[in-house]
Design a protein that fits this description.
disordered N terminus; mainly alpha; 525 residues
Length: 525
C-alpha cells in the first residue's frame, strides 16, 4: 500500500476490503475523480455508438434510395441527403436513449442493490446514472431545436443567389436556423412575460428586462430547462391523447400479428375446399372462348388461393399450443398489463388526494440518495421488473395510438419507400414522445423512481392541481377507449368463434325444420 501511495503522489487510493479480500477502491481524490470521469466518458461513448448504429440501420431500412448521376448538382444532392440521414440517425439514437433511460436506471439500481461487492458492476454508480440523464437532457434539446430544423432547412435549401454547392446550402440553412431561433426566443420571451406575475404593461423594453434574462445570466441551464419544460408539456399532452387510444387499439394490432385460433373450423376442410376451387378454376381456364376480363379475374383468384393455402399449411404445421393457445395467452397478458397500469394511476390519484403521494421532483434527497433502499419498489425486484414493463408498454401504446390515428397514418414508414422529409417528421414525433416518457411515468405514478438531474427543473410537474387533473383525465380517457373498443371487439370475436360454419348451420336448420314438421304432423294426428 505504501508503494502505491508513493507511486501516485502519496494519495491514499488503496483501501482493503473488510473481509480481507484485497479489493482496492478509489476514494474521492483528484486522480480517482479523473479515472471515474474517463470511465463515464467511455461508457457514454460506447452507448452512443451502439445506439447510433442501431438507428442508422433502422433509417436505412426505411429510407427511399437516392439515385444520383455524375453531375455536380447530383453529387451535391447526394451529399445533402447523406448528411441529413446522419443527423436523423443521431436524433433517433437520442430518442432510443431517452426511452431506455428510466428502465435502465431502475435495472441499474437493482443490480447495485443486489450485487454491491461485485467486481463486474463496480463501474455502476449514482454519478454515472445522473450524468447519463443530464446527457440525454442536453442532446434531446440539441436535436429538437437545432439538428432537426437544420436538417429540414438543409434539405430544402438551394443556396444564396449566384452560389451553388454543399457549403452554400449549409450557409443558407444556418442563416434560416438563426432567424428561426430568434423568432423562437422572442416567443419564449412573450410567453414568460404573459405567464409571469408582473402586471405592468407589456412593452419590448419590459420584455427584454424580465426575469427570463436574469435567470439566463445567472444559470446557463435555464434556457435548456425552459425549452424542455415546453417540450415535455407538449409531449405529455400528446401522450394524454395517444396513450389511451393505443391501450385500446393495441389489441387489434396484436390480433393482426398473432395467429387467432379457429376452434369451430377444421384446417383440413378449408385446405380441401381451396384445392377443389383451384382445380375448378384451372378447368375453366383450359376452356377456350373466355374473355380477357374473366381470365384475369380467374388468375387473380388463383393467386389468392395459393397465398391462402400457403398460410393454412404453415398454420397446420405449427404445434397445437401455438395454434390455439398463444393468442388467448397474449390477450390475457395485455388485459393484465392494461388493468395494472390503470390501477396504479388510480392508486396515485388516491395518494394525491390524501396528501400521501409526493410530486415529481419535490424530494430533494432522491437526487443524491436514489440508490437507497427506501426508494425501492413495494414488492422488491419483482416490482422493479413490473415497473420496467409498464414503462415500455406505455411507450409502445402511445406510438400505436399515434400512428393508427387516421390523420397520421401517412407518417407510417414503409420499407425503401419513405422520403427524407417524412423521416425527419417521424424523428420529431419519436423524440418528443421518448423525452416526455420519464416525466409521464413520474406524473402517473407508474414507478417510484423520480426524475434526476436537469429533468427536475421542469416546473409544471410540481403543481399538484395539474398532476391531479392529468391523472384523472388519463384514467377517464383510458376507461372510455377500452369500453368502446375492447368490449365490442371481444364480444364480436367470441360470437365469431362460437358461431358454427355455414354448412353446419344449413344442416342444423334443415334438421330443425324437419323435426318441427314431424312434431306438427304428430300433433295433427
Amino acid at each position: 500500500s505504501s508503494g502505491i501511495n508513493a507511486e501516485y503522489g502519496g494519495c491514499s487510493r488503496c483501501m482493503e476490503d473488510s473481509n480481507g479480500s484485497g479489493v482496492y477502491e478509489l476514494e474521492t481524490t483528484d486522480d480517482g475523480q479523473f479515472y471515474q470521469a474517463v470511465r463515464h466518458a467511455i461508457m457514454a461513448m460506447l452507448v452512443t455508438v451502439v445506439l447510433y448504429m442501431i438507428s442508422y440501420a433502422i433509417i436505412c431500412r426505411f429510407k427511399r434510395p437516392h439515385i444520383s448521376n455524375a453531375s455536380n448538382e447530383d453529387l451535391t444532392e447526394a451529399s445533402v441527403y447523406r448528411i441529413t440521414i446522419y443527423l436523423c440517425s443521431f436524433t433517433l439514437s437520442v430518442s432510443l436513449a431517452a426511452s431506455l433511460l428510466l428502465p435502465s436506471s431502475i435495472l441499474s439500481r437493482e443490480v447495485v442493490r443486489h450485487c454491491p461487492n461485485s467486481y463486474f458492476f463496480k463501474w455502476i454508480n449514482g454519478k454515472l446514472i445522473k450524468d447519463l440523464w443530464n446527457g440525454v437532457f442536453l442532446c434531446s434539446n440539441l436535436s429538437l431545436f437545432v439538428l432537426l430544423p437544420f436538417s429540414y432547412f438543409f434539405l430544402e435549401s438551394e443556396g444564396f443567389t449566384g452560389t451553388r454547392g454543399t457549403v452554400a446550402r449549409m450557409k443558407e440553412s444556418f442563416t434560416v436556423l438563426v432567424l428561426f431561433s430568434v423568432v423562437t426566443a422572442g416567443c419564449l420571451f412573450l410567453m414568460t412575460r404573459l405567464i409571469g406575475t408582473d402586471t405592468t404593461p407589456l412593452t419590448l423594453t419590459l420584455v427584454l428586462s424580465t426575469v427570463f434574462l436574469e435567470n439566463i445570466v445567472k444559470s446557463p441551464w435555464f434556457m435548456y430547462s425552459y425549452m424542455y419544460s415546453m417540450t415535455s408539456l407538449l409531449g405529455v399532452a400528446v401522450l394524454l391523447v395517444c396513450t389511451p387510444l393505443g391501450l385500446a387499439r393495441i389489441f387489434s394490432v396484436i390480433g393482426a400479428i398473432v395467429m387467432k385460433p379457429q376452434l369451430a373450423t377444421s384446417l383440413d376442410e378449408q385446405i380441401m375446399m381451396l384445392d377443389l376451387e383451384r382445380e375448378w378454376i384451372g378447368r375453366n381456364l383450359r376452356i377456350n372462348g373466355l374473355t380477357d376480363e374473366v381470365e384475369r379475374a380467374h388468375k387473380n383468384r388463383v393467386s389468392e388461393i395459393d397465398s391462402s393455402l400457403s398460410s393454412l399449411k404453415k398454420r397446420k404445421a405449427m404445434s397445437p399450443w401455438r395454434r390455439n393457445s398463444l393468442y388467448p395467452c397474449v390477450l390475457l397478458l395485455l388485459l393484465f398489463i392494461t388493468g395494472l397500469s390503470i390501477s396504479m394511476v388510480v392508486f396515485n390519484i388516491l395518494k394525491l388526494l390524501l396528501g400521501y403521494g409526493p410530486l415529481p421532483g419535490i424530494d430533494e434527497s432522491f437526487d443524491k440518495e436514489f440508490l437507497d433502499a427506501k426508494y425501492d419498489s413495494y414488492i422488491g425486484s419483482l416490482g422493479a421488473l413490473i415497473e420496467i414493463g409498464l414503462v415500455g408498454y406505455i411507450l409502445v401504446a402511445s406510438l400505436v395510438g399515434f400512428y393508427t390515428t387516421e390523420k397520421f397514418r401517412w407518417l407510417i414508414p414503409r420499407r425503401k419507400k419513405t422520403p427524407v422529409t417524412t423521416i425527419i417528421v417521424n424523428c420529431v414525433v419519436v423524440l418528443v414522445m421518448s423525452c416526455s416518457l420519464p416525466v409521464l411515468s413520474a406524473t402517473l405514478g407508474l414507478t417510484r423512481f423520480d426524475l434526476l438531474g436537469h429533468y427536475r427543473t421542469v416546473k409544471w410537474v410540481k403543481n399538484v392541481h395539474v398532476i391531479l387533473i392529468y391523472n384523472m383525465t388519463f384514467v377517464g380517457l383510458s376507461a372510455l377507449c377500452l369500453a368502446k373498443k375492447v368490449t365490442t371487439a371481444v364480444l364480436k370475436e367470441v360470437c365469431n368463434q362460437l358461431q358454427p360454419p355455414a354448412p353446419i348451420r344449413h344442416r342444423f336448420f334443415l334438421h330443425l325444420s324437419a323435426f318441427c314438421g314431424m312434431v306438427g304432423f304428430l300433433r295433427h294426428r
